[in-house]
Amino acid sequence: MPSYTAPTRDTRFIVNELLDLASYGNLPGFEQATPDVTDAVINEAGRFFSEVVAPLNQSGDREGCTRHPDGSVTTPKGFKEAFAQYREAGWGTVSQPVEFGGMGLPHVLGLVMEEYIMTANQGFGMYPGLTTGAVSAILSKGSAEQQALYLPRMISGEWLGTMNLTEPHCGTDLGMIRTKAEPQADGSYAITGTKIFISAGEHDLTDNIVHLVLAKTPGAPDSSKGISLFIVPKVLVDADGTLGERNGVTCGSIEEKMGIHGNSTCVLNYDGAKGWMIGEENKGLAAMFIMMNAARIGVGIQGLAQAEVAYQNAVAYALDRRQGRALTGPAEPQERADPIFVHPDVRRMLMDAKAFTEGMRALSLWGGLQIDLSHKAADEDARAKADRMISLLTPVIKGYGTDLGYQTATNMQQVFGGHGYIAEWGMEQFVRDARITMIYEGTNGVQAMDLCGRKLAMNGGQAVQEFFAMVDGECDAAKGDETLGPIAEKLAKANGELKAATMWFMQNAMANPNNLGAGAVHYMHIMGIVALGLMWLRMAKVAQAKLAEGSDDQAFYAAKLTTARYFADRFTPDAGALRRKIEVGSDSMMALGADDFATAA
Amino acid sequence: MPSYTAPTRDTRFIVNELLDLASYGNLPGFEQATPDVTDAVINEAGRFFSEVVAPLNQSGDREGCTRHPDGSVTTPKGFKEAFAQYREAGWGTVSQPVEFGGMGLPHVLGLVMEEYIMTANQGFGMYPGLTTGAVSAILSKGSAEQQALYLPRMISGEWLGTMNLTEPHCGTDLGMIRTKAEPQADGSYAITGTKIFISAGEHDLTDNIVHLVLAKTPGAPDSSKGISLFIVPKVLVDADGTLGERNGVTCGSIEEKMGIHGNSTCVLNYDGAKGWMIGEENKGLAAMFIMMNAARIGVGIQGLAQAEVAYQNAVAYALDRRQGRALTGPAEPQERADPIFVHPDVRRMLMDAKAFTEGMRALSLWGGLQIDLSHKAADEDARAKADRMISLLTPVIKGYGTDLGYQTATNMQQVFGGHGYIAEWGMEQFVRDARITMIYEGTNGVQAMDLCGRKLAMNGGQAVQEFFAMVDGECDAAKGDETLGPIAEKLAKANGELKAATMWFMQNAMANPNNLGAGAVHYMHIMGIVALGLMWLRMAKVAQAKLAEGSDDQAFYAAKLTTARYFADRFTPDAGALRRKIEVGSDSMMALGADDFATAA
Fold first, then answer.
1. H or E element in which residue A182 lies
2. pLDDT band for position B601 (cuts 50, 70, 90)
3. Residue tagged active-site, from A441, A489, A549, A583
4. Given CB atoms, is A248 within the 8 Å cutoff of chain B?
5. What is the DSSP string of A324-376?
6. Is ipTM > 0.90 here?
7. Which one, of A304, A301, A362, lies nearest residue A17 by Cα?
8. What is the pLDDT of residues B70-80, one digit of tens each?
9. B155 to chain A, minimum CA–CA distance in Å?
């Protein structure tokens, strides 16, 4: 049976040393985030998710959720009790605003919670996970009344939330939704339609579920400019929050899917359900994007999460399983065979995983800091710059993070050989669970188009130019340093490929926009490599300083330096190949017609 | 529900036009393989596997196999009847020797059958699939008596076969097996031990199952030089083949696994079962490799197979599902949205799949031709050369073919967006089924070490030098040709990367063999790119000639040319990045110790 121990040492390194959260102590919410406090939160949360939530991961996958004839849904054994403990401990409140019952700590720490819960048990983590996005939308667009009624209960975990976007005939293209919202005399709306793929759509963890639903009011434009967002509670509530009658929304079925069986992915039928509009009519898409952006970073972290748990178990297996001999001669001659850890190809997979997970953890938490700074930095310029940076990198965190997360989980399964394919060992579940992250909250192809079609062009390319300058600046600063110099040189080369690809888009996308679409995913991957490379350069710099000052934990910092070198050696070369693929454009890609894809007859 | 139509047009193109089987009519077995005959076999087999076997793929996955308390196993509904039809039609006999009841057609056509059956239904295909390897071993190493007793029945499908290698504590390192073979007075052996992961280990398709089992005789060397191979029939048989008593082998359990649920993957307990040695004592490994090499090519074809069926369904979905608009403006303005086929990123995934599947089909069937020529070519030199070529490329066909097969199946699932994750659409099964192909019959890491550690060095590097010369020769010949020249140029560049990587190994592996291990998988991938690239250059050349002579089927050949260009554009750039990764060597990869991989505390 697989196990999970939260990587608290690495998290503390990132939070306290790499991001140096304490240095932002002058900003609101940061003042209480001293290393003592952050260490306590990280360690205690790590213990909770490893010991209480992780043990339900495999059993939750096997049992799945059960829909009863009345439409109610039971979650797997143990989920309800574990969720009660989660709520009791307040793990969902860490980075939520104090005025609505949150702890008001930096968003960085909220993302640490997201990583730990998703690594421990993705199916479980998605129950409160979707709530985070719903809370963001209500915080940003809800009326004072809506905020007062819903937020304290959603933040405390008394109620949970969902996001209702997809319908059978439309997912990405939300302008096509058919769910209707008819205005009622009392100011509410009657919501009617069918939503599919609703994660945590129905369950027994809380007494109420707050659905955020995209729908169209009568006469709304037939496009994404005609959709509005509604709050539709499963159980109607009084102004003081007392539960009343059941609302007209029911779970029609639970989807049978490849993984995340612990989460109930529901078809929800709205039959004149009472809903209340959030924000302005026909401005639902903007509100939806607030949920979505929060969710996208969360999904990127899920990619990291499945990679991390798979990695931990693969390391343990590689050290335990004996097969063959080291190429350099028996490593443990007294034993019948060496641990497979000695084989370079096993080590390659483990090092790839180490370089990805630690780099991705740094990138996602650094992304969390940008979100904090975008709200709380002292001056307007700093806030705007942080906002540009996280806007640019959100699709990269989601798209690159989950592509690599799935690849890493697959490789860690490979370390187990045949045993990796057997359910009992748990590795195949990590792969099945990781697979969804490349799809939901916008497929990775959609992320790539968001990056290349929207984010690159924002403010005349300001964000990406700032990103280039940041990377080049740090590479330049490392020049000549014996340790950091060679790492920076390879990063600067990858950044050069990214700049060249950007230039190529500028010169070739106007004439034929398919040239942009044809290279978008490759571009997203180059930017992922550069972004992780930057994190590795920074981590190497911190490690170098710690080693120089004679830290007690020499081994930890020395390993960081080695892994930074490994990342530079083994991840950056792909940037050049990806650029070459971009520069061939879309001609041979788009030349064939539908009939040319028929393989038979 | 997914569907499958055998790609008969493409197969006929490869067999008749690319390989030009008819031109070998002077060789034994080829004289009857006229285009009329091969077309009939291909078309009729295509119809059978598409119509009879494919419809049981999804139901077989859902139902799985059932082990009863007495150890007997029932296959999924419909498998028994479909297998009876398969046997009746003689599809397993196509390329088997006439003297044992086979049709004696070229091995090329046997591989076509393997592709079609595995694409239609991998769980089903593995029942007769494992028999092919067992037949090869008996053909090559069995006594005349053993051949006469077993081969006609195994080839006809009256009995099926298995391969019993793995034990709980050893897979790759077969020298460690513990299964014992005690010699008996009657010349047989008493086999005792536990074998795991035995595909098709017990079932209800045939009255008997012929297990080929690796075991150790008393006092045998404690290494791979001390293992012998035994025939152990499930039911004991008289010399005339009449079934007698049950032998002492039982199915202890069926493994719960990620996919191929239609196949019974068994734990087999041998309890003094009666077995007969095949070939010489302690020479079991050589016999095993005969099974294994046949099986490895078969597994490479399984990679192609899952990619192909996933591709066919993704094309259909991409043409049907409407979402968003073409970047170049509405393609079908009269409709509410365009088919997702118009989006470059969808097309990228489909073109990647087309370029891989058609290229891989050509490579595997060309590999089949090398097997034929290694036995049947007119002169000894030609036989030896063909043998070297298939020895070199077997690990590439297995390793590259299945890595790309899984990646392709995953991408085709991605085309479906959220629906790809839902069981009902069938795409997730293709991914789960494809996943095993990277693992069994030697993990892809083992394939890469076979390639780099053994095959490169064979006869002083003769095989790989011949491969380089073949590629360079054909690239040179295409130079200056307006159509073929640019394709050849990119292929020659990739071949240059492969040669450089080979040279780097020669210069750096002696001093530190980990340098070889650290780059082996990357090397295998470069060779896969070059091998598929060569197939595409050849296909382009044939297509160009057909277009020039005014073939009726202009569209088919024009698409071949476009896809050849696409392969050159989009697959070959990776060769350079892979070479750069090889050339960084193993230092940063092997530097960390076990403790450095702990992520917590």
1. strand A180-183
2. low
3. A441
4. no
5. S--TTS-SSTTSSS-BGGGSHHHHHHHHHHHHHHHHHHHHHHHHHHHHHHHHH
6. yes
7. A362
8. 999 999 999 99
9. 28
pLDDT, tens digit, for every residue of B14-68? Answer: 999 999 999 999 998 899 999 999 999 999 999 999 999 999 999 999 999 999 9
Angle value at C-alpha A47, between A41 and A51, nearest 5 degrees:
150
**Is A202 tagged catalytic?**
no
Q: Check A514 against B328: CB less than 8 A apart.
A: yes
- B residues 488-527 near A, CB within 8 Å? 512-514, 516-518, 520-521
List the single residue in B170, B323, B432 with the smallest CB-CB distance to A171: B323
User: From CA A88, how far away is CA A90, in angstroms rounded?
Assistant: 5
Of B7, B341, B448, the CB nearest to A599: B7
User: Which runs of consecutive H residues, i.e. helices, occur in A451-513?
Assistant: 462-478, 484-508
Q: Is A47 on the interface with B (CB under 8 A)?
A: no
Task: Please give the single-letter amino acid code of residue A127.
Answer: Y
- The model carries a pTM of 0.98
Judge whether A340 and A324 are in contact, CB under 8 Å. Answer: yes
With CB atoms and an 8 Å threshold, state whether B345 touches A521: yes
Q: What is the least distance, in Å, from the CA of A467 to any CA of chain B?
A: 24
- Identify the H or E element spanning B192: strand B189-199
Catalytic residue ranges of B: 441
Q: Across the interface, do A172 and B315 touch by the CB < 8 Å criterion?
A: no
Place of tokens 């011949």: B466
Contact A300, A427 (CB under 8 A): no
Write the pLDDT tens digit of every residue in A429-477.
999 999 999 999 999 999 999 999 999 999 999 999 999 999 999 999 9
Buried b (16+ CB within 10 A) or exposed e, B317-336: bbeebbbbbbbeeeeeeeee
Question: What's the CA dihedral at B400, B401, B403, B405 to 10 degrees?
Answer: 160
Instruction: Identify the three-state secondary structure at position B235.
Output: strand
For residue A294, the model assigns a pLDDT of 85
- How buried is A111 (Cβ within 10 angstroms: 0-12 exposed, 13-18 middle, 19+ buried)? buried
Q: Choose the closest CB to A418 out of B197, B319, B521.
A: B197
